[in-house]
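Sharing a chain and its predicted structure for anyone who wants a worked example. Both blocks are below, sequence first, C-alpha cells second.
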Amino acid sequence: MITARAAATFEPVGRSVAAARTFVRDTLQGWGLTDIVDDAVVLTSELVTNAVVHAGTTADVVCIRADTGVRVEVADRYPEREVPLQSNGGHHFGHPDREGGRGLLLCAALAARWGVEYTATHKQVWFQLDFPDRPAGTRAAGPALPSSALPIADSRVRVGVVQVDSGGLISAWNDDAQELFGYQPEQIIGKPLTDLAAWPHTPGTGTGVAEALLLSRWEGSYGIRGADGRVSPVYASHLRIRDAEGEPSTVCLLVRERERAVLQSPMRGANVDTAETAERGPATDAFEVFIGSPAPDDLDGLLQRTVERARDMLDGDAAYLLLATDDETELEVRASTGLPSARQRFARVPVEAGTGRYGSARMPSVHEDLSAVPGAVPLLVNTGMRSVVTVPLKVEGRLTGSLGVAAESPARYSNEEALRLQFAADRIALAVERARLTELERLRRGSLSFLVEASDLLAGTLDRDQTLALMAQMTVPTLASWCAVYTVADQASEPELSYVLHEDEDRIDGLKALLMKIDPPEQVPTGGARGWSGPYDAAHAAALRTSLRSLSLGDSARPSSGPGASLATASAVGGETVVLPLVARNRVIGMLVLGKPTDEHFRQENLELAEDLSRRAALALDNARLYSERTAISQSLQRSLLPPEQPEVPGVEVEVIYRAAGEGNEVGGDFYDLFPIRDGAYGFAIGDVCGTGPEAAAVTGLARHALRLLAREGFGGPAVLERLNAAILDEGARSRFLTLLYGELWPQHDGSAVLKVVCAGHPLPLRLRQDGSVESAAEPQPLLGVMEDLELYEQTVTLDPGDVLLCVTDGVTERREGTRMLGDDGLIDVLTTCTGLTAGAVATRVLRAVERFAAEPPSDDMAILAMRVPEPEPADA
C-alpha cells in the first residue's frame, strides 16, 4: 500500500547527480526514514550517474513509500542500452571499483529487491529498501516541520500501555497493547518484560531493558516479540512512578516505530522565545545549515552525514572523514562515501604522510591531479580519483581529524573550494569531538565490563586447555574474526600452535592447517600489537597455486574440491592480522594472534582492549601451567608413597582399594603396604597420617620405608612400631600423629593363615567367620608420634579357610551424611553380608556401601585391605 510519493526530473549534466542525491535525502528525511537514507542516496547516485553522465539522457527519479519499505525508480530515455547480465556465458557485473557499471552490482548488494523494466521510450531501474529494525538506544526528535513534511501515521494510532512492577513483571496490559502484539492480558500479566523485549545485546555499551526500567525517565527504540513470534519495532517512553503505598513501578507507552513522533520528546534548543524564532525564519546556525536537521545523535551517523554533505557541497564523487588517534600520529578512517569497501572503516594512515604542507593532514591542501604525484593521498590509491581537497578538523588548536572530498576528473578543486570545506569543517569539529568523546566513554565502560567478566572467567579455572579456549572465545567475534594462540614451553623452545578459533566453524580446519605450515611469529617481549603478514602471504600463495593447478588440469580433470577451500581461507585471513605477546612474570609464555577477513581493519580501541586482555590471559595461562606442574609433582609423589606392586601371597587372597579424595593437588593422608619379609612371611600395614600436604607426606614416606627396613631386619611387630614412633618424634615440628595397623602373615600348610597384629590407634581390624559372625581381631593401643615410651604388644589371629580379615582407614568408618555416620557398627553390618565372597568382592562391596551412604562424594581418603583364606576345593569323586 502506497502511503507517500515524490518525483523529480534531472537534466543530463554532471551537477544533476548531486541534485538527485539531495532530492532523495530530503524526501526520505521528511518521511522520517533516516535509517535507510544512506543506502538510498548511494544507489540513486550510481543510477543517476549512469543516466545523465554515461547514457547522456534526462533522469526521472520517483520515491514511493509503502508499508514495508521505500521504492526508488530511476528512468532514462535510452532504452537501447544493453543491460549487463550475470550468467555463465554472458556479461558479468563490473568491478565495484570501476568508474561505470556499478549501479546494478550495488543494487544487488544493498537492496532488498531490485529490477529493470523497459518501455518503448524508457528504461527504468528500481530498487526497494525495507524498513530495518532500529537499534536500541535513546533518540531525540527534530524541530517543528511544515505539514507537508510531517511523518505519516495510521488512521488509528494505537498506544500500548504496559505497567511493570518493581520485580520487572508485567502488571497491566491495555487493549491497544493487545491489538499491537496479539497477547491477551491473561497470557502476559505476571511475565517478565524481558521475555518479550528484543534488545540488541552489546555488553557494557548501552542501557539494557532491565536498566531502562529502573531509570526515572527513558525514551528510545527496541523490539517487542508478538504472539506470532515476529519482532515489531516500537518506540517507547518509560516513566518510573510510585503508588499510594510507596511501591515503585514503570509505565511504558509503546507505539509502532514509524509512529514514533507521537511519543518522541522535542529536541533541546537554545533558550529563545518560540515566537521570535518563527519571526526570524529558518535557523541560520552554520552547523545546522551544513549537517541538516535533525542532526544525528550518534557519532557514526554524524560522520556519515558529514561526508555525504561535503561530497554534495563540492559536487564530488567521493568523500571521507578520518579521526586522529590520541597521540595525533595516525588517522583512522571512520566514514566514507564513493570509495571501495577496503577504504571505508578503520584503515589507518600517518598524519605526516610526506614532506611539506601537502604531506601533512594538519594543513588544508588541494591536489589537482593525483596521477602526477602517485601515493600523495594513500587512501585514494587505485580508486580512480584524480583531484582531491582535504582540510583538518581542529579543536582548540589540536588536530582531531581530517575531511576530504575527491573527484574522478583532474583540476576540479581550487583554493576557493578548500576555504568552503574548511569553513564547514570548523563548524562541525567541536560537535564531532564531543560525539567522539561520548563514544569513547561508552566504549571504555563497555571495555571495563568486558575485562571484569573476562577476569572472572579466567580466574575460575586452572586448567591449561580450558584457559586457552577461554582466551580464544573471549576475542572471537567480540574483538576479531579469528584467533590463534601460540605457547612457549621455555626460552629455548619454539612457539607451538596450541589453539585456533574462527567465527565460522567451517573455516577452523583450513585456518589451522595454514598456520601449521608457516613459521610462527617472532617472539617480541615488548608490549603492544604488531602487524604480521605471514597468514595473508601464505594463504594467497596457496590460493594462487591451487587455482593454477586447477586450470592446468582442465575442467574435466579438475579436483572435486577445486580452489574454493584455499580461496575461502585466503579471504578469511585477508584483513589485518596483529600479534600480542603473552608475558607473565617477565617471561614470554606465548602469543595471541588476532585477525580480520579481507579488507577489514581493527579499531584502535579494540587493539587497546586486546592488550589489556592479553596481560590478564597471560597471567591466567601461567597460573594454569604452574598449577599443572604442581599437580603433576604431587601425583608423582603420591604414587611414590604407595607400593610399586602387590606381591602374590600363596594360599591367601589379598585385595586393596585406595581412593584419594580431592583434585589430586595434595599428598599424604592414608597409605597401605604389603611386602615379603622372608620366605613364608609377609608384612602388611594400613595407616593414616594426621593432616595433608608435604609434612604428612614426609611421615607417610618415613613410615612405609621404615616398616619394610625394620621388618626385614628381623624385628617383631611391637619393636618395629616403637622404633618408628621414635623416628617420627625425631622429626620435631614436622612430625605428625600416625594411626597404624601393622601385622605379619604366615600362610600354613593346613590351609589356614596365622597373623600377628599391632593396632596403634587405628580402626580395629574385623574378622568375618564362615558362619557370618564378625568380631574384632585386635585390641586398641596408643597411636604413634605422641608419646616417647610406648609399650606395645602383638596379638595372634588364626584365619581358618573361608575367614576374612578386613582392615580400613577412618575415611570408611567416618563417612557422613548430615549428623549420621557409618561408624564401626555400620561397617560390621556391611561385612556380615559378605559371607562366601572373595576378597575382591568384599572390598568392592564395602566401597560401594561407603559411596552410597551419602549423596555427596567422599571428602576423605580411603584405604581398604581385605585378606581371605580360601576354602579347599572338594576332592574328585
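Comments welcome. The domain at 287-435 is CATH 3.30.450.40 (Beta-Lactamase).
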